[in-house]
Amino acid sequence: MPDLYPLARRLLFSLDAEKAHHVTLAMMRAADATGLLGCLTGSNASSNPVESAVEVMGLKFPNRVGLAAGLDKTGSAVHAFGEIGFGHVEIGTVTPRPQPGNDKPRLFRLKEHEAIINRMGFNNPGVEGMLVNLSYSRKDFRGILGINIGKNAVTPAEEAIGDYLLCLEGVYGAADYITANLSSPNTKGLRDLQNADTCRELIHRLQEKRDAVKPDHGGKHVPLVIKIAPDLSDESIADLAKVFSETRIDGVITTNTTISREAVAGHALANEAGGLSGAPLTTASTAVLARLRSELDPAIPIIGSGGVMTAEDARAKFEAGAALVQVYTGLVYRGPRLVREIAALGV
Asked: What is the Cα–Cα distance from 64 to 238, expressed in whole angstroms?
């Protein structure tokens, strides 16, 4: 089947970036509801397999490629993303209470660099709203569902852990795994939670809360994952690796977006506040992954995210030690074919 995405991208890129995002999700949901999504994206083509099951964190993933958090913030298109080949879909970031996020405009394309800058600010419907969305969007989804959690912008830094606990309790029954987002640059003070001592306390508190809510969910065990930034020093990575190994966290995602603008210096949008994602992040993100892998207990899996724009980028992350990879900006620029190409690696 011909790849129709370049034509669709031309049309979508003529729109404001955030409007194009919402239009894309609406079109995906409509095509999914009519059963046409797989046909339109070529996801059913036998020459592009999407099934290559692997077990990670005690969960069976249909393949090694997933959707990174941030694209489906509301949990409204889970089944649709599954239909284009993702083995897992991570939704969110969700906060205890709904919030609108930062002022617009807050999403920018740097097309020359195949990059995006966003300062969305955890715009989401809150835990209750997300669960309502999941009641219909997850139906018949055959993959693994991750839910990414964070704190509300108005919550003081010293009370941040409480927000994570509220989120964990709220989404526990719906999630296959839960990711604590400590690394978005768009919520004031959030990255301070990557301090080794604070991170250790957060993990212990999350694990205690998990133990407390398990009986209410038939003893279901939900793995806990931490997502870190690409801007950490080698010393900070080593310190966090010790914390992750000591606490026996179930997994780590490397990485979130970067605040560095070195790779896009001189671009008209380079000074826009927010996190930079896409091709400029590829090398740095993979370097953090490799560094963490060298310091981390080998039994703890790493999910490679950040700058996965091609199948070769994904291969580099697997070679650096990733058990799974996640895509976001690569999907925007390359389309669903990228998902199939990564899944077909058979790593």
From this structure: 26
Q: Return phi, psi of residue 314, to 5°.
A: -65, -45
- Residue 44 to residue 252: CA distance in whole angstroms: 31
**Angle at CA 341, nearest 5°, toward 338 and 344?**
150
The residues that are catalytic are 184
Domain that holds residue 319: 5-343
Tens-digit pLDDT profile for residues 243-266: 999 999 999 999 999 999 999 999
Question: Which segments within the chain are labelled E, that is strand?
Answer: 54-56, 59-61, 65-67, 88-94, 107-110, 115-118, 144-149, 177-181, 224-228, 251-254, 275-278, 302-305, 324-327
**Strand arrangement of the beta sheet that strand 275-278 belongs to:** 107-110, 115-118, 275-278
* Contact by Cβ (8 Å): 245, 217: no
Question: Using omega within 30 degrees of 0 as the cis cutoff, is the peptide bond preceding 98 cis?
Answer: no
What pLDDT sits at residue 46? 39
Output the pTM of the full model.
0.96
Hey, which residues does 253 pair with through a beta bridge?
A: 227, 303
Residue 61's domain is classified under what CATH number? 3.20.20.70
Using DSSP bridges, classify how beta strands 115-118 and 107-110 pair: parallel, antiparallel or unpaired.
antiparallel
> Which residue's entry shows tokens 């958090």?
69
pLDDT of 2 above 80 = no
- pLDDT, one tens digit per residue, over 161-173 is 999 999 999 999 9
- Our CA angle for 236, 240, 242, nearest 5°, is 120
Q: Any bridge partners for residue 108, and if so which? A: 117
Number of domains the chain is built from: 1
Burial label for 159, CB within 10 Å (0-12, 13-18, 19+), is exposed
CA 198, CA 154: separation in Å to the nearest integer?
A: 19
Q: Is the peptide bond before 255 cis (omega within 30 degrees of 0)?
A: yes
| C-alpha neighbours within 13 Å on the C-beta side of residue 288 | 27
What is the identity of the amino acid at 37?
Answer: L
Q: Give the chain's radius of gyration (CA, Å).
A: 19
